[in-house]
Design a protein that fits this description.
The protein is built from 10 helices and 14 strands. By secondary structure, it is α/β, with parallel strands linked by helices. A hairpin with a 2-residue loop joins strand 12 and strand 13. Helix 4 packs antiparallel against helix 5 and helix 5 runs parallel beside helix 6.
C-alpha cells in the first residue's frame, strides 16, 4: 500500500499553475521533493494538506482526503518551513496547546523523542538552536501516532552537523516506527543520505517521479570543447563552463570519443534540465 497517493493536483494562480501533478509515496519510503525556487514544491505540499484549495485527489493509506479530511489528517505529521512560535513561549506551553487537537496523542512517545533529542520542556523557543527547533517540531508532528511525515524545507538554514542529526532522526522514524516521509529540500546531500525516491517539479509540472537511483542512472555529465560538439551529441541543457561547454547525455546514447563524461549528480541534473526547460526544450523524464 502507498502511504500517499496524489493524482492530478492542480492549483491555478494568476502567474503560476501547478499542473496535474501525480505521484505516490510508497509505505516505508523517504521521498525527496525537489525543484528550483517557485517550481511549485510548497504549493504541492499545501495542496496535499488542503492548506490551500486545489483540484485533484489525495489519499493517505487508502483514505480519501476529500471524503474524510479529519481522519486523514490524524495520520499525518507536518513540519512547515521556519519555526513560528512566540520566542518567549516554553516548549511545555506549546505542547499543551498542541496535543489536545489529537485524540491519539502519546505523551510517552513525545517524552522519549525529547530525551533522544536532548530537549527540555523548560526551554523557551528563543533558547533553542535552529537544529533543536527542527527536532522539537518533529517530536510534535509524530507524537500523535502519525504514519506519514510531510516536511517543507526542514533543513534550510541548518549547519552540517544539525542536518546530519536530522537525517539520523528521519531514518530512525522510518526503520523503527514505520513512518513514511515526504520532504522538500534544496540540499541534495540530504537526499543522497536518506532518500529512496525523488519527485521533481519544474515550472509547476511534474518532470520526474522515480527511485533516486533511477534518476541518477538516466544521465551522464559530458564536457565539450565546442558548442558544435555539444549540439552534434544532442546534449541536454548545454551551458558554458570554464573548460568549454557542459551538458547532459542520456545513458543509452553513445558517448563520442572526443567527449569526457562522468556520472551526473542531482545538482547536475537539476541545473541542466532547468536550462533545457528555460530554452523551451521541455525535457520529460521517462
Amino acid at each position: 500500500m502507498n502511504a500517499l497517493e496524489v493524482k492530478g493536483l492542480t492549483k491555478v494562480y494568476p502567474e503560476f499553475t501547478l499542473d496535474k501533478v501525480s505521484f505516490c509515496v510508497p509505505q516505508g519510503h523517504i521521498v525527496g521533493l525537489i525543484g528550483r525556487n517557485d517550481a511549485g514544491k510548497s504549493t504541492t505540499i499545501k495542496g496535499i494538506l488542503r492548506l490551500i484549495a486545489a483540484e485533484g485527489a489525495v489519499s493517505v493509506f487508502g483514505k480519501n482526503m476529500n471524503e474524510d479530511e479529519t481522519a486523514v489528517k490524524q495520520m499525518i505529521g507536518y513540519v512547515g518551513g521556519g519555526f513560528r512560535y512566540y520566542p518567549i513561549n516554553t516548549l511545555v506551553s506549546i505542547r499543551k496547546a498542541y496535543a489536545p487537537f489529537y485524540p491519539t496523542w502519546d505523551q510517552g512517545k513525545y517524552e522519549r523523542l525529547l530525551v533522544q533529542s536532548g530537549l527540555s520542556e523548560r526551554k523557551k523557543v528563543k533558547e533553542l538552536s535552529e537544529g533543536m527547533k527542527v527536532k522539537f517540531a518533529i517530536a510534535l508532528a509524530i507524537s500523535h501516532g502519525a504514519k506519514l511525515l510531510i516536511m517543507d524545507e526542514p533543513t534550510s538554514g541548518l549547519d552540517p552537523l544539525s542536518r546530519e542529526e536530522f537525517c539520523d532522526i528521519v531514518l530512525q522514524l522510518v526503520r523503527e516506527d514505520g513512518v513514511s516521509v515526504l520532504f522538500s529540500t534544496h540540499i541534495t546531500s540530504d537526499l543522497m543520505r536518506i532518500a529512496d525516491d525523488i519527485v521533481y517539479i519544474s515550472q509547476g509540472k511534474l518532470l520526474a517521479a522515480c527511485p533516486l537511483k533511477e534518476l541518477l542512472g538516466k544521465y551522464r555529465l559530458a564536457r565539450f570543447s565546442s558548442l558544435n560538439d555539444a549540439t552534434a551529441a544532442k546534449a541536454i541543457g548545454v551551458k558554458t563552463v570554464k573548460e568549454g561547454y557542459e551538458g547532459l547525455l542520456s545513458r543509452n546514447m553513445q558517448i563520442p570519443t572526443n567527449v569526457a563524461a562522468t556520472d551526473a549528480t542531482i545538482d547536475n541534473i537539476i541545473v541542466h534540465l532547468e536550462k533545457a526547460n528555460e530554452e523551451g526544450t521541455h525535457v520529460k523524464f521517462n
